[in-house]
Amino acid sequence: MLFSSMIFLWLFLPCVLILNLILPRGAANWFLIAAGFIFYAWGEQEYIWVLLLSLLVNYLGARLMGKAGESRTQCPGYTFVILVLLLAFNLGLLGYFKYFDFITGLLGKLSGRQFMEPRNLLLPIGISFYTFQMISYVIDVYRGDIPAETRLSHLALYISFFPKMIQGPIVRYGGFDACIHDRHVTPELFAYGARRFIYGLSKKLILANQFASVVDKVLSHPMEEISGGLGWYIGILYTLQIYFDFYSYSLMAKGLGQLMGFSLPDNFNYPYLSLSMTEFWRRWHMTLGGWFRDYIYIPLGGNRCGKATTIRNMLVVWLLTGLWHGASWNFILWGSVIFLLMLIEKM
User: Fold this and answer.
1) Residue 140 and residue 143: Cα distance in Å, rounded?
2) Which residues are catalytic?
3) Is the whole-model pTM more than 0.85?
4) Host H or E run for residue 207
5) 8-state DSSP, 145
6) Which of 90, 161, 254, 288 has minimal Cβ neighbours within 10 Å of its Cβ?
C-alpha cells in the first residue's frame, strides 16, 4: 500500500487517525499494531511470517540478555553468546532473502561450476530496514543503553509501525519507546504533522513521479539511440528522481508519525547543497549513516587507532553500505568509489 494511493489516503489513513485519537492509549497501541500488520500484508501476505519471526526471536533473545545482564559480572560470556546468535539470525535472515543468489553465483564462478540453482527469491518488503532496527535494539540491550523490553506489544509496535516500515527512517528503540509510553496529539502537533505529510506527498506526485516518467520513457529506448546530451539530461533527472522519491517518503513518514504522536528522526538535510562528499553523506539518509557509524565504524575503532585502521574501517563501512543498497557488483563498485572520494578528501 503506497502512501500516495487512493486506498491509503481516503480509507486506511483516516480510519487510523480517527481511532488513534479516540481510543485510550493502551488500546490505541494495539490498534496501531494491527494497522501495521494490515498495511504490511496488503502489499505482501506471503512474507508476513518473516516479520513475525524477527519480532519473536529478537524479543525472546533480548529478554534472555536482559536477565543475564542483571548478573553481568558473573556471566558476561553468556550475554555475548546470545548477542552473537541474535546477530547471526538477523543477518542470516536478511542474507538469505537478499544475497542468496549473489553469493551462490559468486561461489559458482570461483569454483568453475554452478554451485546451486538460483532461487530468484522475492525480497520481503522493508526487510533491510526492520532488520537493522532489530539489530540496533539487541545491541543497545547488550550494551546496557536500554533495558530489554518486557512487553511484546511495545516491540511489535516498534517493528510494525507502518510510517517507517517500508523505507525508513531507521529508528532506535530508545526514542521510540518513550513515545509509546507518553505521547500526546495536540492540535499544533497534528497540524505540523499534516503539513509535513502534504509537503512530502506533493514532492512525490509533482516532482519524483514526473521525473520518473521522463526517465523511464527515454531509457525504454536502446542505449545507442540516446545521445550524449540526452544522457546527461536523463542522468540529472534520475538523480533528482531518486532524491525526491526517497526524501518525499521520509517526509511523509515523519508527518504520519507526528499525526499519531510519534517523533521520527529527519532523514535528509538538503544533501545537494553539500560542499564535499563527506558533508553529502552527513546530509543524505542520515539515519542509515548514523547506524553504520554507531554499530560498525566506531566499534571497529573509528579514527582513534591511526591512519591505517581508519582507512580499513572506512573501507568496511562503504563496502557494507554498497551491499546494503543491493546485492550486485555495481553496488560494491559504487561503495568503493564513495570510499575513494572520501579518502581523498580526508588525505
Assistant:
1) 5
2) 325
3) yes
4) none
5) S
6) 288
DSSP state at residue 40: H
- Locate 134 and state its grid cell: 532489530
Tens of pLDDT, residues 102-145: 888 887 777 777 667 777 788 888 899 999 999 999 999 999 89
171: its cell numbers: 529508528
Mention every residue, 6+ apart, whose C-beta is less than 8 A from residue 117. Answer: none
Cα–Cα distance for residue pair 221/219, rounded to 1 Å: 5
Residue 264 CB neighbour total at 10 angstroms: 24
Which candidate, 246, 233, 168, 264, places its Cα nearest to that of 207? 246
- The set of residues, in sequence order, having a beta carbon less than 8 Å from that of 114 and lying 6+ positions away, is 108
For the chain, give the mean pLDDT. 90
CA distance 36 to 127: 14
Of the candidates 159, 151, 99, 152, the one whose C-alpha atom is nearest the C-alpha of residue 123 is: 99
User: For residue 278, what is its C-alpha cell?
Assistant: 563527506
pLDDT(72) > 60: no
